[in-house]
Amino acid sequence: MQLEDHPTVKRLGGKAQAAGNSSQSLDAAELRQLVVACGADDAGLVEISRPGLDPQRDELLRYYEVRGIRAVNPSMGFPMEMYHTPSYAPWVVLHKPIAVEAGLGHMGIHRNLIHPKFGNFVLLGTVLTELDVETYDHPIEYNPCLECKLCVAACPVGAIGPDGSFNFSSCLTHNYREFLGGFSDWVEQIADARDALDYRRRVNEGETASMWQSLGFGPNYKSAYCMAVCPAGEDVIGPYLQDKQRHLKEVVRPLQEPVYVVKGSDAEDIARRKFKNKTVKPISSGLRPRTIGGLLAFMPFVFQPNRSKGLDTVFHFKFTGMEEREATITIRNRTFDIKDGLLGKPGLRVTDMPRPGSASSRMRRVFLWLSSAERSRSRATRACW
Fold it and tell me: Which domain holds residue 39?
């Protein structure tokens, strides 16, 4: 029997052809009812052409093409497409921007989505389909965030600034200690330890037990205090409005645990100054790009604004060899800007000659050169990353 003559193939082939010839749009109300019936508390619909999806549209379309199917529900968390790492992000969909466009809330200053009813403690999922919907949703007109800044007060590493700024590296290093980056650092601590005693000097028994628990039962967030203290949302705002001081005393202040930071970072300064009763442990962030493109893409996220205080300069970087790249980095007023090409007049030019090793090892050499070439600025330069 030929494959095309098999009863299953013929039956499914007919259904696929009929579906492919159908131009009927999905009914929005009926689709929402279906989603709620399947267990969701709320749902919104967004067309893929929405400008708010510009940063991830190419990846979404690529995912369609690879799967070759009409609808798919990408992972809302792990497992992800880990074969993409470290050159590309392992996730397929950025759920929070889609949720904002779908009218399910807005981002608070803690960078979590806040639903107007349920608050920020929500789980997001996205279903991608190639079929059109009759009507689409749009972002809600107000932000449920109260701007109470309790998340600022509770964050153990100061990742959330009172001015609304966000330090990605500080949050990642501590809160995601037992996820991919922290796990990589832990494995390297094992590999570098001379013996069991040296390992216990590097990683105490409580940390080892916690890592085992994450491996056995799912990774543990080391903080998420910003979510715990957030009073926004109709379902959770009541106690906060009734007694703000009690909320502060019972919810915000008791949060305690070891704080993981990168040595010399803004997070270390804040943790040691703000939480004197906590153990502050310097570790590696686990961010190790293996390409020059990945390295330059990571730099804005690991930049330490407070450490760059007083630094006002322009750097020209030229990478040669198999991965040629030119970039201009401007640091001014504790802000970081990176652009392709060699732009403006630099305070320092750095050319990285090709040598064996990963991009991260090449970058370590680059900043060693920086610190020796700009002696008057070396301390601030080294501390920015």
Answer: 3-129
